[in-house]
Amino acid sequence: MNRPNIVILGAGYGGMMTASKLQKKVSADSANMTLVNMHSYHYQSTWLHENAAGTLHHDRTRMEVDSVIDTNKINFVQDTVTGIDPDNKKVNLLNGEISYDYLVIGLGFEAATFGIKGLLENAFTISSINKARLIRQHIEYNFAKYNNEKDKKQERLNLVVGGAGFTGIEFVGELANRVPELCKEYDVPRENVRIINVEAAPTALPGFDPELVEYAMNSLEARGVEFKLGAMIKEVTADKLVYEQGDEIEEIPTNTVVWAAGVRGNSLVEEAGFESNRGRTPVREDLRPNGYDDVFIVGDCALIMNEETERPYPPTAQIAIQEAEHTAGNLKRIVEGNHNLEPFEPNIQGTVASLGNKDAIGVIFDDKKIYGWTATAMKKIIDNRYLWKVGGAALVLKKGKLNFFK
Ligand code: FAD
Ligand code: NAD
Predict the structure, then answer these.
(1) Do you know which Gene3D superfamilies this protein is assigned to (predicted)?
(2) Among candidates 43, 12, 87, 83, which has minimal Cα distance to 267?
(3) Whether residue 233 has its Cβ less than 6 Å from ligand 2
(4) 92, 243 in Cβ contact below 8 A?
C-alpha cells in the first residue's frame, strides 16, 4: 500500500480532532486523507442546550469545516453516510460511495428512547444544530400563541425536560435564564410558566457528588425550576407527559417535552454489523473493534471500560477529543509502516456543568469541588481550550467564550 486512503466519518469532536491532528502529523504525500460530514460545518454538541433555550445564537456554536481544516491536505466531502460495509472496506453515501484502507468512525450520538410510547413522535431532543433551533422556535411560538388565543392553554407554558443527567440539568439552567426574557418579550406573567425536570432516579445527577447536586438543585429551584424525582416517564403525547411516581400515574399537560434522558451511539455503526452494547461498540485498547484492524471508533460510538469501576466510561467530548488525538498518532505509525499501536488511556480531568450563564458546579483535579463563578469560569476555559486545540488563537477569538463576567 503506497498511499493509504484514510477516511474519517463525522466532523464532531472526534472527527474534527482526528483530522486536525492528522493534517499536522501526516503529510499529504504519504496518505490520502478524507473527512466526510453531512453539513459543511462542525458544531460543538456541548453548547447545543444554549442554542435550544435561545441563550446563545447557533452561529456561535458552529464553524465551517474548511475554516479550520486545511482542505489542501484533507479532502472534505459534504455528504451523508447511509451505510458502512467493513467487509468490503466501503462507505455508502447519499450521493455515492467511498473506499478506504483505514476508517475512523466518529458519527456521534443519537437519543436513546428506550421504546417509550410516543417519545419519538412527540418529544424534542438536543442532538444537532437544527434540532436545537427547532426547540428554540417551538418555545417562542408557544409564548407568542399563548396571548393570541381566547382560551389560554397552560400546556403552552409548561416546559418539561425528561432526565436530570448533565444534559437535562444544563438545559433547565439555560431555560431558567431565558424564560424571564421571553415573558417580557411576549407579555406573559412569569408565574404562569413552569419549568419541570422529571427524573427517574431518586436524585438529580445520579452518581455525582451529593453536596454539588444539592447546590445545583437549590440554585435551579431558586430560579423557578421544579423537580419531580423518582418519576419514570412512561408516555408522551402531543399535549401531555405521563410519568409513574411511587404507585401513582401522573400527567403534566404540555406540548413541549425535551427528552434529555439518555444517548446511544449512531445506529449506523450497529447496522454495519459491529458488536453493540446498548448502541455503542466495544473497542480494544487501541480503539479498534473486534475483528477489524482497519477500523478505529472514536467518541460516542465507542464503548471503553473503566477497569477500576468495571463500568463503561460515560460518553463525553473530553474522551472523544482524547481518543481522536490518540488515533491520529496511531494512524501516523501505520502510515510510517509501524503496526505496533499504542493503547489508549483516558485522562479524566474533571467534570464541570453549567447551571445557566452565571452558575455552575464541578469536580476537578480528582476531588476538588468548585461552584459559582469559579466553576462558570472553568467551564469557559474548558470550552476555549478545545477551540484553541482545534483551530488555534484565531478560532478562540472568533468563537470563544471570552467574557468571564457575564
Ligand atoms: P458529535 O460531536 O456528536 O459529532 C458527530 C458528527 O457526525 C456531527 O458533526 C454530525 O453532524 C455527524 N454525523 C452524524 N451522522 C452523520 C451521517 N450519517 N453522515 C455524515 N455525518 C454525520 N461532554 C463533555 O465532555 N463536556 C460537556 O460539557 C458536555 N456537554 C454536553 C452538553 C449537551 C447539551 C450534550 C447533548 C452533550 C454534552 N456532552 C459533553 C457530551 C458530548 O457532546 C459528546 O460526548 C460528544 O459530542 C461526542 O463527540 P463525537 O465526536 O462522538 O460526536
Ligand atoms: P445521562 O444518561 O447521563 O442521563 C440521563 C438521565 O435520565 C439519568 O439521570 C436517568 O436516570 C434519567 N432517565 C432515564 N430514563 C428516564 C425515564 N424514563 N424517565 C425519567 N428519567 C429518566 O444522559 P445525558 O445527561 O444526556 O448525558 C449524556 C452524556 O453526555 C453523559 O456521558 C454525560 O456525562 C455527558 N454530558 C456531560 C456534560 C458535562 O460534562 N457538563 C453535559 C451534558 C452531557
Answers:
(1) 3.50.50.100
(2) 83
(3) yes
(4) no
Question: Ligand 2 mean position to 393 CA, how many Å?
Answer: 32
**CATH class of the domain whose range is 119-259:** alpha beta
Alpha carbon 148 to its chain centroid, in Å, reads 35
Nearest residue CA, atom 38 of ligand 2?
Answer: 166
The domains spanning 5-111+263-347 and 119-259 adopt the same CATH topology:
yes
Is any ligand 2 atom within 6 A of the Cβ of residue 230?
no
> Rg for the chain (alpha carbons), in Å?
22
pLDDT of residue 282: 98
82 CA: nearest ligand 1 atom: 18
19-49 pLDDT, tens digit each: 999 999 999 999 999 999 999 999 999 999 9
All three cell numbers of 91: 462507505
Task: Tell me if 212 CB under 6 Å of ligand 2.
Answer: no
Q: Which CATH architecture has domain 5-111+263-347?
A: 3-Layer(bba) Sandwich (3.50)
What's the pLDDT score for residue 259? 98
Q: Which residues of the chain have pLDDT under 70?
A: 1
* Residue extents of the structural domains in the chain: 5-111+263-347, 119-259
| pLDDT (0 to 100) of residue 405 | 78
The answer, yes or no, to whether ipTM is higher than 0.95 is yes
pLDDT score recorded for residue 366: 83
The question of whether 110 is a catalytic residue gets the answer no
Closest atom of ligand 2 to CA, residue 49: 43
> Which ligand places an atom closest to the C-alpha of 317?
1
* Residues paired with 5 in a beta bridge: 32
- Determine the 3-state secondary structure of 215 from DSSP: helix
Cβ proximity of 110 and 126 under 8 Å: no
